[in-house]
Structure formats: structure tokens, C-alpha cells
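Hi team,

As requested, here is the filled-out complex form for the FVH run. I kept the field names the same as last time so the parser does not choke. Let me know if anything looks off before we queue the next batch.

— J.
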Amino acid sequence: KTTSAAPTDVSVLGLGLMGSALAATLLSAGHRLTVWNRTAAKTGPLTAQGALPAASPAEAVAASPLVIVCLSTNDNVTEALAGLDLTGKTLVNLTNGTPEQARSISGWATKAGAAYVDGGIMAVPQMIGSPAAYVLYSGDEEAYEAHRPTLAAFGGTRWVGTEPGRAALHDLALLTGMYGMFLGVAQAFALIRSESVPATEFAGPLQEWITAMLGAVPDLATAIDTEQHLTDVSNLAMNREVLPNFTDTFRAQGVDPGFFLLLAPLLDRAVEEGHGADGLSRLVMMLKQ
Ligand code: FVH
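And here is what came back:
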């Protein structure tokens, strides 16, 4: 947290696991909090701590200049806020969604009178309010700056630009890296467990190896930005040669090779197109459609 906020009125719409964590953090920071949830029973724990219950999204929006919404999907957001007058409000939407959805809701909210800020939460509910949590923001910069001290209660605040879809783009890109990593981790555990090696015994070496390899990310980024893909580390032709060692072993050990089978045509094409001496950064160019 970089700043502390003067108490202000805030409404939170959506009290799922994440919305409840956001709301509880705002209450702890001393804000006057109004809460709304489709299933009204979920407001109980928060109203017991001093939050004010709203009977409808309209009532919640009317109660505060800063309105934070965190529902399952952006379709839910559009539905919950449909037809409401948002004049003078700042709408901060922390629902996971696509850049296109963020742009669309921004356009609608602006027409309805609001300043719109889209956000991507880089934390699980238990991290909210801790230094490990941060939220990406994009959209109306003036509104963001005005409310940043309040938003800082959730953790770090990272501004990524006035284009409303930019926070969702960063959010999805970061989560893409995470899902890819966890898919690899799951595949690795499946392979090691095929001979009954305890997962706990393998966890340390796996974490150590992945952490060491992540050190290559900045050099990869430089190669991508400069389009200098030649490598003296680990080229694509060599990676193509060893790929069957993985897929053959998966099959032999009764592990689904599907994840790695996606890699084969990419590596084949890279080598066929004369990029065998390039490093993994070349795959970024090949993935772009
Ligand atoms: N939980 C997490 O770890 C991740 C971390 C990163 C950000 N995500 C995104 O946050 C959004 C909310 O996630 P959540 O964890 O709070 O999700 P749930 O606990 O499932 O709560 C969902 C809330 O949405 C309400 N809701 C659903 N459909 C509707 C609807 N048609 N109209 C109004 N509200 C709706 C639901 O209400 P109810 O079921 O209690 O009545 C909850 O309040 C999400 O985008 C994550 O991707 C979380």
C-alpha cells in the first residue's frame, strides 16, 4: 500500500468470495460501506460488522460516489446495472472479463454518466489487503487517481493505461502464463507419479527448476521486442529433436500426451520455415495469427 485514504462512502456490488474480501477490507479501512448481493443472505457477515445493506443495485449505486462491482461475469454486471443512472459516479469493475467487454461496458457506463475504471485482481481472496496482492487498472485516469487511496486498501495499485480494455489484457496475459505453468506442473506430477514417486518428494526439485528457468523471461522479452531470435542457449531444432522423448514416455507411462502434442506442429513449422537456430522467442511470432 502506498497511500492511506480519508474515509469515504463506497458501495460494493457482489459478495462472492472476492467481493466479500474486498468489502471487508474497505470496512477495516474505516469507509462507510454499502453492500448488495443477489443472494441477500451473503450480506449478513458484513452488515454484522457495520456495512449497510442495499435492497437493489439501484439503491447500492445511489448510496456512494465510488461503486465497486465484482460479479462472476461481465454479462452479470451488464444485467445488474442495466437502466441505472450513474451520473457523477465512479464505477470500478473488478469482474474478470475480456478487453472487448471492458471497452463495451466503459462505453455504456460513460453514456450513463459514470467515470469508468476497469480492474484485474492479481490475488486470491485471502491475499486481499496484503502486500502480495495487487490490482491492475485502466480507463478514466482522473477518476482512478481520485480514488486510488481508497483502492490501495486492497493491495498494490498498478495503472496500465487509459484504454479501458488494457487491464483485462494484462490480467488475461498474466493468467495465461500461470495456467501454462500449472498445466506443465500437472503434467510433471502425472509423469513422476506414474512410477509412484511421492509428489512431495518431487515438489522441491520441480519448484527449484521452474524458478531457475523463469530467470530467462527478461532475455526472452528483449529477443521478442528486438526481433533478434537467434540463440546460443536452446534452439528450436534441438527442442524438436527431443520432443518425442517426452511424448513417447508419456504414452509408455500411461500419461496423456495431449499438452505436448500441441508443441510438435509449432516446432515443425519453425524448423521448416528456417528458424531452427532460433530460441523459444520465435514461438511468440508463430503464435500470432
Ligand atoms: N476468487 C478468486 O480467486 C479470483 C481472483 C481473481 C479475480 N476473480 C474474479 O472475481 C470475480 C468474482 O469472483 P468470486 O471469487 O467472488 O466468485 P464467486 O464466489 O463465485 O461469487 C460470484 C458473485 O457473482 C454474483 N453473481 C453471479 N451471477 C449473478 C447474476 N446473474 N446477477 C447478479 N449477481 C450474480 C454472485 O451472487 P450470488 O450467487 O451470491 O447471488 C456472487 O456475488 C470473478 O469475475 C472472478 O473471475 C476471483
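Two things worth flagging: DSSP finds 13 helices and eight strands in the chain. The chain has a mean pLDDT of 96.

Thanks,
J.
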